[in-house]
Amino acid sequence: MAKHIYCRHSAEIEVPFFDVDVMQIVWHGHYVKYLEVARCAFLDAIGYNYNAMLKHGYVWPVVKLDLKYIRPARFGQKVCVDMVMTEYESCLRIDYTLRDAASGEKLTQAHTTQVAQRIDNGEMQFQTPESWQEAVRQFAGFVPLKPR
C-alpha cells in the first residue's frame, strides 16, 4: 500500500568545503545536517518551527533515522532536498530524496521519525499536540487523507 503524502517541500543546499573529505565528497555524517536544513525550512513554511514547539511545551527528538547512500555529493554541488511528510498525527515522519539540482540524479534517500515529548515531565506523546496538527492542516500544500 502506498503511503499518503500530506505535504511536500524542497530546499536547495550548496555543498560547502568544510563538509567534504580529501576526495572532495561529502562525509556521510553531514547528510543528517542536510535533512535538518530541509526540515527546518518546511517547519518555517508551516509556521511551526522548533521555537514554536518549545513555546507550546514540547521538544521533538528524532527517534528513527535511515539513510541510503546512492551517489556521493561533492564540493560545490547544488543539492535539492525533496521531502514528503507521511505522518503528522502520531509523530512527524518524513521521507527525503536528495538529488543533484542540475541533473535530477538521485544521490541519497532518507527517512526520519520524530515524536513530541513534553518539556515539563519528559513524557513521550503518542498523539501529536493539537497546535501542531492545526499548523500542518493550515499549510497551503496540505493534502488531507480521503475517507474510505
Automatic annotation (TrEMBL):
InterPro entries reported in the protein's UniProt record: 4-hydroxybenzoyl-CoA_TE, HotDog_dom_sf
Pfam family, one: 4HBT_2
PANTHER family with a match to the protein in the record: 4-HYDROXYBENZOYL-COA THIOESTERASE FAMILY MEMBER, NOVEL THIOESTERASE SUPERFAMILY DOMAIN AND SAPOSIN A-TYPE DOMAIN CONTAINING PROTEIN (0610012H03RIK)
Record keyword Hydrolase present: yes
Source organism phylogeny: Bacteria, Pseudomonadati, Pseudomonadota, Betaproteobacteria, Neisseriales
Name of the protein in its database record: 4-hydroxybenzoyl-CoA thioesterase
UniProt GO MF annotations: fatty acyl-CoA hydrolase activity
Keywords on record: Hydrolase
Family from the record: Belongs to the 4-hydroxybenzoyl-CoA thioesterase family.
UniProt KW Transmembrane keyword: no
